[in-house]
Design a protein that fits this description.
The protein is an alpha+beta fold and 171 residues long. The protein contains three helices and nine strands. The chain has a six-stranded antiparallel sheet. The protein has a three-stranded antiparallel sheet with strand order 2-1-9, with no helix packed on it. It binds zinc ion.
């Protein structure tokens, strides 16, 4: 009887360790860490207070609290300069004006990112919808959402808040 108890106890113990282990792994995966070899590195990781010092109130709301700017109000929905769009949180290049198109939705829209590794895509179930959130892979800032109703060649529509990006014209 005792042996069975000990055996049973050991199994529970091993299961608990497994559960805990998996849980830690999931946690590690969902944390937005800077990519190795990225020069921005730890500088891009800031406390909420530090973010408040470097961002405007609107930027903080969108980038750090996953807010959305009102459509047709941002800087770039109706803008067609030639150049790159950097993350407003950390300066990493995220989008190229070559992939920008007029989606008619009131937010700047792109059919691709400069590099898939520069963004993190995450399921977003808020507001009773299933959407895919787009985050900066370097600093974890919220950029917008991506939908699969974009134009060729990717069919993707990265619907991005103007306040989340900063345009830099080609020289
Ligand atoms: Zn960033």
């Amino acid at each position: 009887m005792n042996r069975i108890r000990i055996l049973f106890g050991s199994i529970i113990f091993i299961m608990a360790i497994n559960l805990f282990g998996n849980y830690s792994m999931i946690n590690a995966q969902t944390q937005t860490k800077p990519k190795k070899g990225n020069k921005m590195g730890n500088d891009a990781i800031k406390s909420n207070d530090d973010w408040k010092k470097v961002l405007t109130e609107e930027q903080y709301h969108v980038l750090r609290e996953k807010g959305t700017e009102k459509p047709f109000t941002g800087k770039y929905w109706n803008f067609s300069g030639t150049g790159k769009y950097n993350c407003a949180g950390c300066g990493v290049i995220l989008f190229d004006s070559k992939t920008k198109f007029d989606a008619g939705c009131g937010w700047p829209s792109f059919y691709d990112v400069v590099d898939n590794k520069k963004v993190i895509l995450k399921d977003d179930l808020s507001f009773g919808m299933h959407r895919i959130e787009v985050l900066c892979a370097n600093c974890g800032s919220h950029l917008g959402h991506v939908f699969d109703d974009g134009p060729k060649p990717t069919g993707q529509r990265y619907c991005i808040n103007s306040v989340s990006i900063s345009f830099e014209g080609d020289k």
